[in-house]
């Protein structure tokens, strides 16, 4: 498969994996993960925006990464040619 096409396909699959993750966790959990891990917002801004503690942000991120790894492993099992990165980020 063409490298550019494979890259685009992986990006679409990873987007789908993130949507599956969003449906599996509480909205506040996903927001904390999205802001801190994906958008790389500073922790103080995340806790200020969401009204939760640093520890809650860290726990949310840990849970989301674990679930995302499982989702990606399932997708890779269905189509190993994708060779998606384990953490999806």
Helix-strand layout with pairing:
Elements: H1 3-24, H2 27-38, H3 43-50, H4 54-78
What does this structure look like?
The protein has 89 residues and is mostly helical. The protein has a domain at 26-77. The chain is 75% helix and 0% strand. The chain is built from 4 helices and no strands. Helix 1 (3-24) crosses helix 4 (54-78) and helix 2 packs antiparallel against helix 3 (43-50). The relative contact order is 0.17.
Looking at how many chains there are and whether they match, the oligomeric state comes to single chain
N→C terminal distance: 22 Å
Regions with little confidence, pLDDT below 50 for 5+ residues: none
Task: Please give the radius of gyration in angstroms.
Answer: 14 Å
The ordered H/E elements are: HHHH
Q: What structural class should be given to the helix and strand makeup?
A: mainly alpha
- Into which percentage range does the β-strand content fall? under 5%
**Total number of strands:** 0
Number of helices: 4
In short:
The protein is an all-alpha fold and 89 residues long. The protein is 75% helix and 0% strand.
Keywords:
89 residues, mainly alpha, 75% helix, Sigma-70 family RNA polymerase sigma factor, RNA_pol_sigma_r3/r4-like
């Amino acid at each position: 498969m063409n490298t550019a096409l494979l890259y685009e396909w992986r990006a679409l699959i990873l987007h789908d994996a993130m949507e599956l993750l969003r449906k599996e966790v509480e909205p506040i959990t996903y927001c904390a993960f999205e802001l801190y891990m994906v958008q790389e917002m500073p922790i103080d801004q995340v806790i200020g925006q969401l009204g939760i503690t640093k520890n809650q942000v860290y726990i949310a991120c840990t849970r989301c990464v674990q679930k995302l790894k499982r989702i990606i492993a399932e997708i890779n099992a269905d189509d190993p040619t994708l060779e998606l990165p384990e953490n999806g980020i």
